Amino acid sequence: MEEAKLAGQKFEQLIKILDTLRGENGCPWDKEQDEQSISNYFLEEVYETLDAILSGNTPSVAEELGDVLMEIVFLARIYKEKKAFTMSDVVENINQKMIRRHPHVFGGKTITSSSKVLDDWNQGKQREKKRQSLFDGIVKMAPALHSAYQIGLRVSSYGFDWKNPSDALEKVKEEISELERALEIGDKEHIFQEMGDVFFALTNVSRQLGVNPEIAMKKANEKFMLRFESLEKTLVERGKSLSQTTLEEMDEIWEQIKDRES
Question: What are the pLDDT digits (tens) for 193-225?
Fold first, then answer.
């Protein structure tokens, strides 16, 4: 409770800081911002937080979480000025939602598995928001891999899913075969559609394995760039540039880099 009390005091101080910055004698820049401009900074801070988490840099995680919290308080202050809601409303809403969405903890319902908890969460969310379609609320601005992951989660909560990751992987193989046939025909539109089907099928394998495909792809991108940077350094040591190097030599160096990692 002591930690909660201290955090509450510091949170209250942050709210007062934003009140001052947006006040009559506050900062000109802060006073000019609106919900649209702060949304851009909010998204940037979320991505920076994710970078810190994935890199394992714990001090940076703490710093970036603070930046995200600041943007949340900033947005709440802007909406308070519009007489829409307050920071207190924001916190109260999430408190009530967490209690409502966990009847197996705060109520009399019994749920024994995390998968059933997730199913109940998704179904409860659909009821609360009075959604006509299972896909109402899928965020249009979200990255496509993330959206595909969320689509899979929603339909799986109603039993529309493969029994295990191996079955989901078979679907990937099926989609790859269809892509290969499209390549043989050379129909660009067909190829385009089949590529999408392959990616979508892979997100379902990820979900079955408990792996977020967006984060997995981000880590794969980082790994590839680090390896290629090592390849570039090796070429510099040999007195060569990329344009002076054959594919065979690059493949050789690439395999050496992979061997050093294993």
Answer: 999 999 999 999 999 999 999 999 989 999 999
Which stretches of the chain score pLDDT less than 70?
none
Residues sharing a CB contact under 8 Å with residue 162, sequence separation 6 or more, in sequence order:
168, 171, 204, 208
- Which residues span the domain enclosing 254? 215-261
Considering the chain, what is the average pLDDT of its residues? 92
| Residues 77, 22 contacting (CB under 8 angstroms) | yes
Q: What pLDDT is stored for residue 138 in this prediction? A: 87
Q: Which of 31, 64, 92 corresponds to the end of one domain?
A: 92
The DSSP call for residue 82 is T
In a domain, 227, yes or no: yes
Is 190 a member of any domain? Answer: no
Last-in-domain residue among 46, 68, 92 = 92
Other C-beta atoms closer than 10 Å to the C-beta of 53 total 15
Closest CA to 77 of 25, 38, 29: 38
Query: How far, in Å, CA of 71 to CA of 53, rounded?
Result: 19
In a domain, 28, yes or no: yes
Q: Give the integer Cα–Cα distance in Å for 208 and 211.
A: 8
The DSSP 8-state label assigned to residue 27 in this structure reads -
Report the CATH number at residue 72. Answer: 1.10.287.1080
pLDDT value of position 120 = 79
